[in-house]
User: Fold these one by one.
Assistant:
Number 1:
Amino acid sequence: MSYLNVPRLTFSGDFISDVSTVNNDPQHYNNNTFKKSFQEFGTGSNNGWWNPEGGATFGFQDCHVQQITGDDGNSSSDPLLDGIIGQIVCGAEGRNSGKMVDLDPQQQMVSQLWGVTFRILTATNELLLEGKIEPTGFRDLQMRQQTGARVNGQPLGGTWTSVLEDVVWGDLAYQSLFLMSLKSKTQENRLSINLNGFGYYYAHATDGRFSLGRILGSLGPWFSGEPKLFPPARRLYGIVSNNNNVFFAASNFILDKENARLSIDFGSSFPVSDSIGTIALNTELFLAVSKTAIGPSPGATPYMVSPDGVLFIGKLEYENGTGWLNSTSGIVDFNNLSHEVLSALKDNQLLLLGASSKADQFVVIAREAVDGIVLRADEFVQRLDTNQTNEISFYASQYGLPLPNHAIYITLEPPTPMTPKLQNTPPICDVPGNNYPADGLTFDAVITTDVNGVGVLKLTGNSIDSPRGYLDGQIYTLDYDLAGVNTDPASGSVMPQNFIAIHLRDYFEIPETPVWADIQPTMVQFANLYPIMSKFFIDFSDPNALIAKKELLIFAFDRDIKDPIYMPVTRDLSETKRLTILKWLRNPIIEGEAIVVTQQKAKGEINLIQEDTVTEAVPLTNNQLRLRDAVRAKNGADFNMPEITNLFEF
């Protein structure tokens, strides 16, 4: 079960993400080369970029329940049929909002939500449903806006999928037949939630939408043993490239054979013409099943099929304008499938087709993954301390069924070289590479799926000693693939795809009696990177200012990592460094020298790196090049804003 299953609820509105941009540039972490101008507004990558005083907040704004879909697959947006329709979707009451943070300035493709509460309320502020969103990073970053992106500055969209934990059903929930049906069907008091964000405003535009984006959400049942951070679904990949822009790049769908229903999510992929979800297509779209295997990569030349080569399921009844997408969240149900279609979908690819100027030809806009194979990791974003071991679950399936007894290969990406100062924009200092030392991580190179198609990887962090210098810890990337299965050539249009992003924190020994010098580099870095704090709350570089507000700081640094108040907000500090800060705040000593690093090296507890590992000019892999380009795109740089008015017209 997932947000695609019924009973299902959809909602839409805006999200606010007041991200901090000073910390987008790795060079800004170097205390020795930091300048006050880096805290000021700048265009592109100058100064502190486009939002230097951001607070990393994330929240729902003006969101409402739009539609419900019952167990019979029928949808309704009429509040007279169920009072849940039209109700308010919002965040926590009377406390800090959630946070959206990158894993690291050198890994910005898995931005995570932390400490986000999800609530549905009546107009009189009475609780219907509440839950905490399990921290999750976005996936399926893909092109969304075919036009209009110059207004908001970001044409891409991304998806957060997670579960609501510790669900509370309000006293009035029993008045909603839909909520009672959902409660009876879901398991472990969890719900599956999906958030498709797009139309985000980097630009300080005159319409007042700076730091806002559009969100299309859905809520459904969750079952034990399923992944938490992605749906157990089949995948549809776009293969039409228009000036290197691929739309409908990735979409999830499920086949409910028992109820003869196919449910597909275009909320993550449907092309729009502005930042609020306006559709402006002139092409009839159809779902069909291919009678033969189709495996082309995205290309400018359309791949055509004849009506005889497919089995039609039905027409996609979308509507131009803003109403359809914002009401349905882009989820479409095809009910009462024929036995012929159900049988064909067992081992044949689903297709999204577009009508062409030739009556006997259809354009294949998107196709199911080659051989229907999907392999995804659940806990794909990892924060690791020394000697910490985490488990990562991998789910392998073919045409929606588990792939048992299959080997999964896990490989560490090769080390990337240091980027010299003069090659950076702007040139501030050298930027270290990633994925070294290789023995910073311990893991099995091969794991095997069980009868349910699930394989578990144990990942252990080892001791490393500041391989990146002024950046804490190291960023590692693990790639994974099924043995004997090539990566689908169409999957490259979305990021991230088939990798594990890891921040291994530096080994650090808690001093018996910490002095200011032990925490000064970290606190000065905080002051530099988060001017909203240093300008309006406290100067973290001043020990006396910290002492004056130490009780508030102790409260924040002592929170659980899932708490929105937790410090540091980026959650990138080793546990021992955080505990050292707490220890100093409880007994602040300003005078004295830091001797911790010397003690560590003397004990031989650190895996030191070879200098040539950092500077060796090793060509970047295709995945590393894609990651680099995607980070630039995510930050609103190095790509053209598309203006395509004839999309899919052939």
Note: The longest helix spans residues 516-529.
Number 2:
Amino acid sequence: MRHATPIRSKATKRPHRFWHDLFASKLPHTHLIAAAGVATALVVALVAVTGDNAEAKRELPEEIEKQAVTNTDFEIPAAEVFPLTAAEETALIPEAPQLTWNEVTVRSGDSLSTLFQRATLGPRDVHEFVSSSDSAKKLQRIMPGEQLSFGLNKEGQLDTLRYRISQLESWQFVRSEQGYNAEHVALEPELLSTFREAEINSSLFVAADSAGMPHNLIMEMAGIFGWDIDFALDIRKGDRFAVLYEEKFLNGELIGTGNILAAEFTNQGKTFKAVRFEDDSGHANYYTPEGMSMRKAFKRTPVDFARVSSGFNMRRMHPITKKVKPHRGIDYAAPTGTPVYAAGDGKVVRAGYTSANGNYVVIQHGQKYQTKYLHLHKRKVKKGQTVRQGQTIGTVGSTGLATGPHLHYEFLVNGVHRNPRTVELPKAEPIDAAMKARFLAQTGPVMAELAKMQSTKQYAQANELKSTDG
């Protein structure tokens, strides 16, 4: 390393010239003696200091001595070193590229190409994105209501794509040299148990609204008790229900509901109870507190919350032909397009169209049972197809001899028509004996919590009534 070369100022004189000039001057003699004394004292002091420093320097290790010499050009006094402020440190960080964001909500009938087009991107961008990784192919199965955010750089190229599935789940794709790097984000909500109960005075949904219970939970509750209660025909004023369910919170904000943990429904004086149980494989189902499955071989009604326009009647006059003809099923009036579900597991033995029945489907359930679904707007299954209970097999319509949109539903036992509302259905299967102890341990506290919440609410209502009367 280059050493600093000392530069001597022109005003600096050699020591012997200093003394010569001093005594050669024409100052008075006394002044010369005084000046010489001061100069001599300064020289002695400087020699003493220089000697001390030289002695100290000789005591330093050789490595440190060399380092001190080597770094002569770069030494900065400590007092002159100032730490950077937070603003200055931030200024040193390279700025992230500024992106222009286009928010797109998936609509029915949309494809990935149409979504990219709405974000001002073309087919080439779609191909580049989809072929970049297997994760990117997930966007080929998007659903209506989901959201995509396109982040475009200054050149109008796709830099970042955010795919929001829900408040708890999303994907982010960021452009790199290899394509797009995918990141899956899954948030865990906080689950809190919530209790609601109500008495039905006009309708089930009005009662749910008064209790502050979301409609989606009413549908779920109807599904739980749907094997025992016909929610289109059996609901009466004075019926009651109580539900213990989960609410989902994210960062302290309510974002939705979770599972129904336990429920009780009193219909025409008869009380039904159900509790959720999850087995070792993670599969969940609902059972009575004693361990009998709520899920029966057949649902009482194959369509949700429809109005019964005509019941089972062996001597009914047909509204169109005006002839007395047995009505061997139940008519459920509902808007065109309402889903129709398979009442039980089985196989489609017939599916077609006739002038009287319109679009129809017939399902065989083992050797003993058969169900028929007539006047469908559309058929969703074909002959020979195996179906599961609750699977959509068609939609409500008014095809064939029909005065309006409705489902005509028939239930046959050994080839004989029976009233779907009153026919005795196969009994439910009990929980496996090996799981019974675990079932009771898991569900016992939940049912106890439901009972406790009911009694607390009833006690509060009784006290409120007493104070009002007083």
Note: Confidence is low (pLDDT under 50) at residues 1-13, 43-76.
Number 3:
Amino acid sequence: MEKLVKQVLRRAPNANIINWPQNWVLKLLSLFFAVFLWFFVVGEDKVDTNVIIPVEIVNLPRDLVVSNQFKKQLEVTISGPRGLINGVNRQHISRTINLSKADPGTVVVKNETDSIPFPRGINVLRIQPNNITLLLDRLIEKEFVITAKTTGKPDNNFELKNVKLTPRSLKINGPQSIIGKDDSFNTKPIDITDRTKSFDTQISLDLEPEILNLIGDTVVDAEVVIQEKMVEKAINNIPVQIMSKEAQALVRKISPNKVNILATIPITISEDKAKLQDLIQTRIWADNLSDGQHTIQVETAAPNHVKIIEIIPAEVTVTIGKRKK
């Protein structure tokens, strides 16, 4: 090494201007050449390694969507100087796929060795997978009606009237091949076994796997209305009442003075005669009537859950007496 340094000094045109001790110059140049040779040797130290490179989709048209699951990362075997290899992970290198000119359908993208922008000096030995298959579908918006599903039966004397859902529909965006098939979603079954009262609950939608992957688990509010069973019942001999006290003093006769009612009533009171007689009232208005007989329509008063089907007879004859002078 010293012989090489001396040759360099002899050939250097300005070597005679160096006033430092000769040993110091030799040592300095020896250090320089040692460092140079070290970098040279390390630079030639090539290694092979595997790196994970992410796949990046760019310039996808707004009306298209990738509808299939594809490999989002590539396993790449590379070879090169150790210094370059060690710096790959810090450079955020990706496999970019430009879909600016893509149309709906199947696109097969081949992973060539030059498709990944590694630094100069790094060689790509292998890429897995070799190809990426993309299914491009038209992106659409669609509104789905939500239908409630139940399981079980309420108590024997009760029945399910309806289920009110909030929201009643759901609007989603997605691939035409996935969301274009159906027009409605069902809820998962709501258990109404032995229920005797209405209740509120939250319930998930019963979605196909591809829809579930698209929008995730979706919950709606459900108001489940349970009511007592209703039966048709004839209630006989209900007295006809006169509503005005002034008219009561003038009415001499009501014919007939009792009527029969056919109504829909709760099953639990359908056999209770006492409750039946008090359940419905029949009445007439006889104000401002002249002396003599008049035919008057019979009216009823009943709770909201009672439905009057028929009044027999629907009219009665009222006899008004002479007023005292």
Note: The helical segments are 2-11, 22-43, 82-87, 176-179, 209-215, 245-250, 273-279.
